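Hi everyone, sorry if this is the wrong subforum. Our group has a chain we'd like a structural model of before ordering constructs, and none of us has done structure prediction before. Sequence below.
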Amino acid sequence: MLAWAIALALVVSRLESQAQSSKDFSHVATNSAAPAGPGPVHGLATPLSGMLYFGFDAGVAFQRDIKLSDTAGDSETVAFDPGFRMDCAVGYNFTTNWAAEFAFGFIANQVQYSYALGTDYSVVDLFQFPLMVNVIYARPLGKRCSVYAGGGIGVVFAFYENQYYYTTPTASTFGYQGMAGIKFALNTQWDIGVGYKFLGTTGYDVGSGVSYDGSTRTEYKSDGNMTQSIQLTITCRY
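Answer:
Right subforum, don't worry. Here is the predicted structure as tokens:
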């Protein structure tokens, strides 16, 4: 989806450039003696330096399978259904291309099956709350379209919860992410677009339980989570 959107933006940008070139040539041909006009004006898609912005993203999230193991030496592979991710961000454009932002997010994915997490008798969800600091580079592709790419680091809080609201202890892990997308400027203040994000974490402790044969108490550990998401984006600049 993102590749098609970027390809479409490139086509639109090319058509706009050709149209502008034709217009400029016609103007020069009919007004060859006219003095040169003012310099070029930035398009709506060019981020303006010194501007604060707020962003909201929401879409589908795909959590990679993880390995859940215990101190008794047992392990299992845990798979997840597609879920939901949303993010809120506040950022600042330091230049026309570079920005930094602080973002807070929420991700939810339902566990397909896990003996250790008790899916035999309850619905279980994985919840993640990333707090990230991101650096973003944006480049216009015409008067209204622009593309961006960036990355960030921070902390991600994660826990499992079943339908009876019993939860595992909240774990805090190191988080890292990459992102890319395309935006379309509605006016000088509002943008809409579509974006891709990849979020990864380090491994963490899940909590205590019983061994897979039910004979002893044990502690469970999880691989790091890896979540990919496709989101619709809304940005407001001030």
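For your construct planning: The domain at 2-237 is CATH 2.40.160.20 (Porin). Confidence is low (pLDDT under 50) at residues 1-13, 15-42.
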